[in-house]
Amino acid sequence: MSQVMEYQMFINGQWTSGHAGEKMEVINPCTQEVVATVPRATKQDVDDALGYARETFESGVWSNKPIEERSAVLMNAAMLAVANKDKLAYLESITSGATIRRTSTVDAAEVGATLLLSAMIAKELPLVEHSFFSPPWVAPMHTFWRREPIGVCAGITPWNFPLILAIFKIAPALVMGNSLVMKPASITPVTTLELGKLLYDAGVPAGVFNVITGPGSAVGNYMAGHPEVDKIAFTGSTAVGKSIAHLAADSIKRTTLELGGKSPILVLDDADMEVATNMCLLAFLFHSGQVCESGTRLLVPRHLQDELVERMIEKIKKMIIGDQMDIATDLGPIASNEQLNTIMDYVRIGKEEGAQLAYGGSRLTQGIYEKGFFFEPTIFINCNNRMTHAREEIFGPVQCVIPYDDEEEAIAIANDSLYGLGGGICSKNVARAQRIAGRLRTGTVWINTWHVLRPDAPFGGYKQSGYGRECCYHSLLAYSEVKHICQDLTPDGNDKLMNVLIGSNK
Ligand code: NDP
Asked: Model pTM?
């Protein structure tokens, strides 16, 4: 076994083991070996981190810097992310179970690209705008409004894409001049800690960006209600998102929530079956299905169900399930034993409710799978949209195939969900696909592809999948306040409104 990496929290530009000095273990889900330890933060550590964030915000050391200077620092950070991509990819994979093939090509690159794009977009954002209108009932005025940072922000992230989901919050928060405290998921905290050092080395002043590690139910919950937090950005389950929204409401914190999903794939009767097969596999097997916007309700014309499922199974049989650190692996382990149990529960419920198992359905336990949390790709056919596994988020490699008879029925089933994160259409007819895209009540619609999250396009959910958008200029707006400044230009300050108030004769 290789040496266990001992991490500390990153607070005020320094590594710290926290007030209690307690540790949490981080394991490799393929072997259950402990690969790292991180401090278990206490509320006092949260107070410290938020205190430094507040202090730096008020001092103006970052918040008052011209946006061009903050952008330049983010660009440095983008370069450092690229320079450190192998290390980031290794740490991300070994702790989250993501295949090294993916993290080394997608995740590290997306960190760099998100930093770079946020910096570039920020420089183009109209930070100050003037009115073109002069209302006749007021005196001549100079009126303009400008964007300002919100203040102290807190970010809480889940375990499935620790790097990408952290940078979606870090890049816009910092470029807009806020201070930020991040709390990553307890099972995958190390790459967010690495980002702390990386941003500091890039030129983000001490105290502006901090990372604490600890249980969400204790320190995350505390952060969400903390009076020092002006904005909270959360990615995770809808259940925890609701509790954060309640806590944040007490002090009217600005809030962005990226929550769960149960995204529908509409395969149309004119789809190219090879394209449909690849799209449907990508939709539910990427990161072994542990993706919020996974396509997990596959709506297919009844007469095409058998052919599509047979094609999918043929390709699944050729996929390599195994050690995520092996470049040949297509599907790695499930991130935790807890999540594996959740998946097994939903598969059991699916069978009990009468869904027909076409493939998979079991944990893999023999040979190379003996110590890890491995689960077979699983396909249920002849499902209906009222079944539990069709309504609730499983967060695993489980597909639920629902046959339909006509287009209107398919659209109605697609929209019949509490969630509204992703959706997709497979069709050779571009106009038809775009028309249907307009009718799906989801934040993203993919046509003939899936899982494309781009830093240059907004991402977020409708309905109980959350509110607010990450990425693109939308996230920059979400990390800023707008202040209107209105100045009377008349020499004697004799505003017409004042005359209305007291009457011109007095
Ligand atoms: P959780 O909601 O359980 O946890 C997410 C984060 O919140 C973790 O950092 C966790 O800390 C923390 N947390 C847990 N309880 C609380 C609490 N009471 N108050 C404050 N923070 C808390 O989700 P998972 O980590 O299990 O991730 C899976 C879920 O996330 C899925 O439902 C998925 O759909 C959703 N998700 C949504 C995405 C989106 O963009 N819409 C993207 C990725 C995931 P700790 O780890 O210590 O428990």
From this structure: 0.96
